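Need tokens for this chain, all 187 residues.
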Amino acid sequence: MKKLFFMTVLLALTGIYTVSAQGFQPPAEGETVIYFVRVTKYGKPTSFEFFHQDKYIGVFKGSQYMRYECDPGEQLFWASSENKEFITAELEAGKTYIVMVDVIMGVMKAHVGLTPIGANDSEQFERAKSLINKKAPTITPEDKIAKMNKKLAKFITAKLEMYESTWKNEKNFKHLSADMAIPDDQL
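Here are the structure tokens for all 187 residues:
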């Protein structure tokens, strides 16, 4: 009984119980939420780092997912591995979106791909939904996020400059449109 009480108090103090709950969690008022979901077991030990515009937001590997809340509107997300993969987004407040994290064979390390999906992408959506309902999200601690943003400041600036000057015109990056939000009754 003491152990249960201690765990409850610890979770209440850290706030983890609200953000690490399994299953879809609605965004805060005026925000939007994106689930970056990796369902494949291929390249399991390879971790991918994730960014929102000019900020490092987290890292995970294997069959996991990351839940990320942000402001609605036009956004740029990207992931880093041996390659850099970008996805533009137009997001609506109060909505939930899913981006599948694809693992693609690389030369020295697996490449990362980002594919937006909607509820009409039935097979992919069901795979993502199953993982989200089965596990709690991977959470990168805030202190690590702050440390990585400092450590990667020049890297982030350089990659965003490459994106703006070259990559966005040469590569066919995907787009997550507002109408790809998952309907509440399917969450």
